[in-house]
Specification:
By secondary structure, the protein is α+β, with helices and mostly antiparallel strands. The protein contains nine helices and 19 strands. The protein folds into three domains: about 160 residues, 4-Layer Sandwich (Anthranilate synthase), CATH 3.60.120; about 35 residues, no CATH class; about 100 residues, no CATH class. It is globular.
């Protein structure tokens, strides 16, 4: 299959059978490769009613094996509910508010492939879904409607009602897509740090996010907000990109706003004085020092500001952390 060439790995019979089966799986990009999770023994569909019970699962749970974890996602609606924020006139998508899975098999895809599993005998139902585009893409907003929304939101910003609004455009069409093939092709073009895909019986999600919103290990928590992008070209290198961001008032102000907002969010759950901005080499930046870190992605340069803090207490509630951001989460 084409997936193997995009991973630069030797042919692996297990992965080949898994990819061509209908078995649910999750692929999550990590620092040195990819983790693939499958053979799910538990699937928790989140609702506004059971979300607190879900967080209570981690109070006394002991995790001993690498497969002792839950991996999944929270939707915006359920996060807003946790913060007691009501969204007016929100269109119903009839999609899950969030799902978490308990894997029994973990496949570490690096230069070599390592399989960790509690399953003694793996079974696969052969099922290969060919990608076919069945209708052209359509958008839900035309130029006239977009301009009306833009003018309204611009007025609200000038009046001080809010400081940032994102106008989203939905693209949709009818297609049959092989999510595994699609994911690996996407990774070949743009392997972003927070890429993942979920394949389940009745849906698939493929994401290619460059932004690390929350990464918690022990009592240390890190976020890497992004505000500012510059398209790559043969004439632009990191030094020129750095000069562009330093001399661009709009990009600089937006970046500083995001940095302050994330610093404020982390300060709610971290020990006073421990939330600091990190340089690329891990050294701390003194208060007030301007920070610009340029990271080169395959298609663009990005302006980042890594920040770290120490959790107030080792047993800080998972809910308190999740309330600060929305992410695909691996909880162990």
């Amino acid at each position: 299959m084409k997936e193997n060439s995009s991973q630069h790995l030797k042919f692996n019979p297990y992965l080949e059978k898994l990819y061509q089966s209908d078995k649910p799986l999750i692929i999550y990009k990590v620092e040195d490769g990819y983790n693939l999770y499958t053979d799910f023994s538990k699937k928790i569909i989140l609702t506004n009613k059971n979300i607190n019970n879900f967080f209570n699962l981690f109070k006394s749970k002991k995790f001993k094996k690498e497969t002792d974890l839950l991996i999944g996602f929270f939707g915006y609606e359920i996060l807003c509910n946790l913060l007691n924020i009501k969204i007016k006139n929100q269109q119903k998508l009839n999609f899950y508010k969030g799902i978490f899975y308990k894997p029994e098999t973990l496949i570490k895809i690096r230069k070599d492939i390592k399989i960790i599993s509690t399953v003694k005998k793996h079974k696969f139902n052969s099922f290969f879904n060919k990608t076919q585009i069945l209708s052209p893409f359509k958008t839900n907003i035309n130029y006239k409607k977009y301009k009306t929304i833009f003018d309204l939101f611009s007025k609200k910003i000038r009046q001080g009602e809010t400081y940032q609004i994102k106008i989203c455009t939905k693209y949709k069409n009818k297609s049959t897509i092989n999510p595994v093939n699609f994911f690996w092709k996407l990774m070949k073009i743009n392997s972003s740090p927070e890429s993942f895909m979920i394949r389940d019986k009745n849906f698939s999600i493929v994401s290619c996010s460059p932004e690390t919103l929350i990464n918690k290990k022990g009592n240390k928590i890190i976020t890497k907000p992004i505000a500012g992008t510059l398209k790559k070209s043969k004439k632009i290198n990191k030094i020129k990109a750095l000069n562009f961001f330093r001399n661009n008032e709009k990009e600089t102000k937006e970046h500083n706003m995001i940095v302050d907002m994330e610093r404020s969010d982390l300060s709610r759950i971290c020990k006073p004085g421990t939330v600091k901005i990190l340089k690329k080499n891990g050294q701390m930046v003194s208060a007030g020092e301007p920070l610009i870190i340029i990271e080169a992605m395959k298609m663009e340069y990005e302006l980042k500001a890594p920040k770290a803090g120490r959790i107030k207490k080792m047993k800080v509630k998972t809910k308190e952390i999740i309330n600060q951001n929305d992410i695909l989460v691996e909880i162990d």
